[in-house]
Design a protein that fits this description.
Blueprint lengths: L1 H4 L7 E6 L2 H9 L5 H14 L1 E5 L14 E5 L1 H9 L5 E10 L3 E7 L14
Antiparallel strand pairs: 1-5, 2-3, 4-5
């Protein structure tokens, strides 16, 4: 998110979707990944607040090349990540806002510490 934020215009916003707390429950009925790796994911997720794990070949799709996998992040960790990005403000964090599944975080410019604008920033 920090890298992408560098490309925001003076009044640009970024909308990102993340898998958060709800994904723990979804996995119980629609597993994302093998149970052995899921338990490893949960261990790191519960200790660090965020985690990523690649799918193995048997779990991946032929139409996606390269590595990809499952990621989870707790809301307070996602917000902390955005807070560390220079010159942006957080507009929204909403759980299950994307298709009643993924969390949505919206952030952008102008930065939170700038005074009220007196004219159009564009």
């Amino acid at each position: 998110m920090t890298h992408l934020a560098k490309f925001l215009s003076p009044s640009g916003i970024m909308v990102a979707t993340l898998q958060g707390r709800w994904s723990e429950l979804v996995h119980e009925t629609s597993p994302y990944i093998g149970e052995d790796r899921w338990q490893t994911i949960l261990g790191q997720y519960n200790s660090c607040g965020h985690v990523y794990c690649n799918y193995i070949k048997e779990e991946s799709h032929e139409f996606i090349s390269g590595s990809y996998g499952v990621s989870l992040v707790k809301p307070h960790i996602a917000v902390k990540m955005v807070e560390k990005i220079p010159d942006v403000r957080i507009f929204l964090y909403q759980e299950r806002a994307w298709a009643d599944h993924q969390d949505v975080v919206v952030f952008g410019r102008p930065a939170f510490e700038l005074a009220w604008l007196t004219s159009d920033p564009v």
